[in-house]
Amino acid sequence: MPAQPSSLTPQVTDDRHSKYDTPSHLLLPFHRPLQTAYLALRTFNLETARIADATSNPTVGTMRMQFWRDALSGALSLTPPKEPVAVLLAAAQGELLTITEGKSKLSKNWLLRIVNEREKHLHNPPMPDLKALEGYAENTYSSLLYLTLQALPMASVTADHVASHIGKAQGIVAVLRGLPLVAFPAPQTHTPQGQFAGPAGGGQRQGAVTLPLDVMAKHNVREHEVLKKGIEAAGLRDAIFEVATRANDHLITAWEMVKNLRAGRDAGHEYEHSEDEEHQGREGERESGVVGQLADVERAFGAFMPAVCAQEWLDRLQKVDFDVFQPGLRTSGWKLPARVYWAFTRKTF
């Protein structure tokens, strides 16, 4: 029997979500067919992302990640531990199993991929290049979008492909937005955005610069100068511009794919993750051609709305000349709700 959340569970998770991930919470109304799953998945992402910021002890961080691996096993088998997010994940799994008569379920592999990737970056190890940064984004934010599509339910390689690019952009934006708080960690528990706060208990960690090393080398950016001078460090604005441009490129690619399908053309290029196990078994989609692919993309459009949030933040970053340390970039732009609404109603991003 599907797990049933208590009356307080959705409220607890919704409170966490709205407080610590405001942009994502703004998108909740555009996921009405799957609000339980959307809230469960986004709050799960938030909880695992916050582990790195909530502890400065490597052992404790690893233990918390293991808790979530165990909690996922219970939640997906509909026997979750008494933890609000796990209970809500179980409810989402139960709803999906009921709707599809047991034919579809949330992927444990994708959920574990998020946990495993978060664990690799518990202590902000340097990323060697932009490809590694994209890999981080694919394994976290793109996986989260795949799960959102699964909850619709939808099994579409084309929709997954669009989601992959949007997730990569999201992940890169998350790293850029978090750069000031990783470079200058404060002894606080949370920030308004929640994902980039200092360690709990007043611990103070050594600052780090989370830009890809190849980009830093290309622009002669030195970590010690960034930790001393902030945005005035030589080459830093250029490095931030290059990384931000890669995020913007992914958003452009995703939108070009949608426009191509609407024009009756092929999406435009091959999906580099199409051979992954979770994307297999979609022969019917290939037979349906462009018309079927477009139908999938249009039905999934609400799941693509994080692209609007990512683009809005990149636009604000450009307006401050790529000074990622500007305090206003740590909060949501006041125009974002209207921008999301118009994007959804006009089916654009």
Summarize the structure.
This protein is an all-alpha fold.
List keywords for this structure.
mainly alpha
Helical fraction: 55-70%
Number of strands: 0
Strand content: under 5%
Radius of gyration: 20 Å
What's the helix-strand series? HHHHHHHHHHHHHH
Q: Could you say which overall geometry the principal axes of the C-alpha atoms support? A: globular
Query: What is the terminal-to-terminal distance?
Result: 39 Å
Structural class of the secondary structure composition?
A: mainly alpha
Low-confidence stretches: 188-203
Count of alpha and pi helical runs: 14
Major sheet description: none
Q: Could you tell me the mean pLDDT?
A: 88
List the helices and strands and how they pair.
Elements (H helix, E strand, L loop, with lengths): L8 H12 L1 H5 L8 H20 L3 H19 L7 H16 L8 H13 L9 H21 L6 H27 L29 H6 L4 H7 L6 H27 L20 H17 L6 H14 L16 H10 L4
Helix pairs in contact: 1-3, 1-5, 3-4, 3-5, 3-6, 3-7, 4-5, 4-6, 6-7, 7-8, 8-11, 8-12, 8-13, 11-13
